[in-house]
Design brief:
Length: 325
């Protein structure tokens, strides 16, 4: 799924609403930060925001919502600068499951006016080490709701399709331990589903498993769908320089943890040697004001009237850390 380098490249336009697609750059927002890849801590500045421009008429009742990075066990986020124009009447942050959303209300934007909203964060991401042992890890028997959410199907992750269940059963046959079953799924996906760079859009897990080809994202979707069909919670992680997957297992005392699975050109299972800035986690997110759960939470702007706002320019940049400039 393509996500923003600097902007959401494709914009869905309907009267009174302008929304970014799942940004082509959550996949690849930035390149060339000057730091070599490795097993060290990654520090970056993340800049999110929007440029709003009116046409020949003023815009009224403008509401902007922008997802922002949040803390995870391997990631620490601290906002250090918020640049908002005087026209913003009210702003705050809303929590929605695994996503945090910046909300701004602008009562009126005059005709032929451009406004920039910009928020900057210091982000530090640590490598995820391979676990000391895996033989004690099991599938969760009574997972809480926030984990159960990643056992069922979601957009492009059709885990209940009969051919997906059948394929998963064949893959895990002969593997008793939960970790070994998940690794068998990972090995099968990376060995059998070819990354086809000529494809412009993801087809989803069902088609990728059936045709044994797909985008890099389809590989992640396939892995996640196969895991879910075997009662292993799994989800998408939307990150800088490529999305990846996570799966969830518990130890023999009932404590659970998410483990990474990178299925791109440099596969990595159970660890994350090269940390990436995380934009969002999850692929089945409920957001207030939107009727359906979302694979990826996009930025959007609502306003009164038609043709009063031009297509927004969404900012989603990953920049060098402040102490490295």
């Amino acid at each position: 799924m393509n996500r923003p380098l600097v902007v959401a490249v494709i914009i869905l336009i309907v009267p009174g609403l302008l929304a970014g697609t799942a940004p082509v750059a959550a996949q690849n927002p930035s390149q060339g930060t000057g730091e070599p890849a490795g097993t060290s801590t990654v520090k970056r500045v993340v800049r999110v925001g929007a440029r709003l421009t009116t046409g020949a008429k003023e815009a009224r009742g403008v509401t902007v919502s922008i997802p922002v990075p949040v803390d995870w066990p391997e990631q620490h986020v601290a906002m250090f600068e918020e640049n908002l124009p005087g026209e913003v009447r009210r702003s705050d942050y809303q929590e929605s499951e695994t996503v945090r959303i910046f909300m701004a209300t602008i009562p009126r934007i005059p005709a032929r006016t451009t406004l920039d909203l910009e928020i900057l964060f210091d982000v530090t991401v640590e490598p995820v080490p391979f676990p000391d042992r895996t033989d004690h890890l099991i599938k969760p028997e009574r997972p809480p709701r926030e984990i159960r959410l990643y056992l069922g199907p979601s957009e492009k992750i059709e885990s209940r399709k009969p051919h997906i269940r059948k394929q998963a059963e064949q893959i895990v046959e002969g593997h008793e331990a939960a970790w070994d079953q998940v690794q068998a799924i990972f090995d099968w996906v990376t060995a059998n589903i070819e990354i086809d760079k000529s494809l412009r859009e993801e087809a989803g897990a069902a088609e990728a498993i059936e045709n044994l080809r797909g985008t890099v994202e389809d590989r992640s979707y396939a892995f996640i769908a196969l895991c879910r069909s075997q009662q292993v919670p799994a989800r998408v992680v939307w990150a800088d320089n490529g999305e990846y997957a996570e799966f969830y297992l518990q130890d023999d005392t009932g404590n659970g943890r998410w483990y990474p699975a990178v299925l791109d050109g440099k596969p990595e299972f159970g660890k994350m040697s090269n940390p990436r800035v995380i934009f969002q986690k999850g692929d089945n997110v409920k957001v207030p004001g939107r009727s359906q759960r979302m694979l990826f939470v996009t930025s959007k702007v609502d306003f009164s009237g038609n043709d009063t706002l031009k297509r927004p320019l969404w900012f989603n940049d990953v920049l060098p850390a402040r102490d490295s400039r």
